[in-house]
């Protein structure tokens, strides 16, 4: 009896040990239990911009010996899908979230849920109407919109008719750019008339192209156009080219892709306001991992914006912004 009784107790406890192990993050998902796992959630996964954010996040994770899981909606207007992505990560008991909210209100309830579970959140790229985040890492978008206004005003010589094609409602980052563009244009170029500023291009090149076609047909004598993100800028460029007005209408856009860079080189785009998405992803993950180690991190960080033109696009520091080394981190 003295030998069988301890054995019976051990056999009784074995299922509890297995069950307890299953409650944590599985090795297949996280590699090792000691390695911090951070969910990085972009607005979408199709634009070139998000590849740079992804690469920066990977670099930070490597530097800290951590792991990131990159997942987001395909389209930047799929609010429900981004909410579902966050909910899925919360169920997996990850150690932190770095997210670019595609809507400044729709993501608030699920982010509050993360905070209630003591999962720290860093916001990148676009603000949200919630103050429970650890840090906000992004471009000063209103200031960046002002850079676009200054460039367009200069190439127009301070006079003419301008169209601003918006991105989409609820996107805090682009709304700030649009506001900065309009306020700076009004303050510094009073002889430039904004003939349209209430049309939305939407989240894809296709929807932006359709809106751009309509605007060009309505305002046949427009002199300049501003578009506040990659998809709207490229959609407008395609529409201008299809209308045979490339080089005749001055276009200033936002963000960079190979096709937008080529448009700049050919003289069909007069300027691109370029952010530093690699730094944004790297800084966001760095801050979250530093916080997990008990370090204090800044509440807000401006990652900067640069006006890129045909004249400066081949300078080394500008080329590094336009075409960062992604293969090192995303291969």
**Class computed from helices, strands and strand pairing:** alpha/beta
The CATH homologous superfamily of the largest domain = Response regulator
Helix proportion = 40-55%
Strand count, sense and closure of the main sheet?
Answer: 6 strands, parallel
- CATH class call of the largest domain: Alpha Beta
How many DSSP helices? Answer: 13
> Which fold does the CATH topology of the largest domain refer to?
Rossmann fold
Beta-strand content bin: 15-25%
Biggest sheet, strands in spatial order? Answer: 2-1-3-4-5-11
Sum up the overall morphology in one term: elongated
Helix and strand string, N-terminal first? HHEHEHEHEEHEHEHEHEHEHEEHH
Cα distance, first to last residue? 61 Å
Task: Based on the coordinates given, report the CATH architecture of the largest domain.
Answer: 3-Layer(aba) Sandwich
How many domain regions? Answer: 2
Tell me the Rg in angstroms: 24 Å
Count of DSSP strands: 12
Unreliable parts = 1-32
